[in-house]
Amino acid sequence: MSNTRRDIIRQMLKEQPFVSLKELTDRFPELSGMTLRRDIEYFESQGECIKVRGGARSMKFITTSLEESFNLRLHANSAAKEAIVTRAAAMIEPGRSIFLDSGTTILKLASVIVDKRLTITTSGPNVALELLKKNMPIVNIVGGMINRDNISVSGTQAMRYIEDINIDVAFLVPSGFTVENGFTCGNYSECEFKQFIIKKARKVVLLMDSSKIDKSLPYTFADIGDVDAVIINRDLPPDVAAEAARVGTEIIVARPGI
Q1: What share of residues in the chain are helix, strand, coil (percent, to 5)?
Q2: Which of 93, 182, 217, 227 has its CA at a distance of 20 to 30 angstroms from the CA of residue 193?
Q3: What φ, ψ does residue 45 adopt, rounded to 5°?
Q4: 184 close to 221: Cβ distance less than 8 angstroms
């Protein structure tokens, strides 16, 4: 296995957002496509790229710093998040297969879920650790690349793991929402993973405090019509409420202190 070849591929990933398999085949004509795919998988395992159809996307160009650090967000809008997760926890029935996203709101949800028989799968390592404080749930964590900004696992390995799991209800959290751009996040790999979860789950519930409204990040993972319900801490703006009513998405308002 040639280190020189991988040095060349690593440099390509540093210089361009997408490296195609055809480009690698042209660069290394003596090698099979399978060998070059293994190279891409190697760089994905190192967190340097994401394997996509036809090649690889460089993480240097995908990762964005638009999301605030996890520690800063952990205590922001605390009362709103408490109200939202209390309402979300009440929707979880014993015996169900649940998916929990990552992020500060989901971490709070994990802390208030009643200790009962559930199968819970999560993309958040810290969420999994919080769930382990309970005795009854079975806790699964997906494997893959960790995004340091929100302590989230995503990527091809994560999607492969989810392929074999049935999900009754998925609880997801966006980083922003507008009617024009839908629910958005700041990382392409995480976007793809959330899209995959939405396709797998029988029911999708978005947890969103009102600070996310009129905030748009680079990658759209869903439109409001792609989810079954949104739990929020105050009434939606009229244009958003009208769009939700039009597409049949339930809006659940969980006001702090009520």
Answers
A1: 40, 25, 35
A2: 93
A3: -65, -25
A4: yes
E strands, the chain, are: 18-20, 49-52, 55-58, 97-100, 119-122, 138-141, 145-147, 152-154, 167-172, 176-178, 182-185, 201-207, 219-222, 229-232, 250-253
**17 pLDDT tier (thresholds 50, 70, 90):** confident
Cα distance between residue 33 and residue 26, in whole Å? 11
Cβ count near 171 (within 10 Å): 28
Q: Phi and psi at residue 100, in whole multiples of 5°?
A: -115, 125
pTM of the model: 0.73
pLDDT for 178-236, tens place per residue? Answer: 989 999 998 888 899 999 999 999 999 999 998 899 888 989 999 999 999 999 999 98
Going from the N-terminus, what domains does the chain have, and what CATH number goes with each? Answer: 3-62 (1.10.10.10), 70-253 (3.40.50.1360)
Instruction: Give the tokens for residue 68.
Output: 């605030």
- Number of Cβ within 10 Å of residue 242's Cβ equals 11
**44-57 mean pLDDT:** 82
**How large a percentage of the chain has pLDDT more than 90?**
60
CB-CB contact of 172 with 205 (8 Å):
yes
With beta carbons less than 8 A apart as the criterion, state whether 146 and 124 touch: no
3-class DSSP state of 53: coil
Tell me the C-alpha distance between 251 and 235, whole Å.
Answer: 9
Residue 214, both tokens: 């009129």
What pLDDT, on a 0 to 100 scale, did the predictor assign at position 68?
A: 46
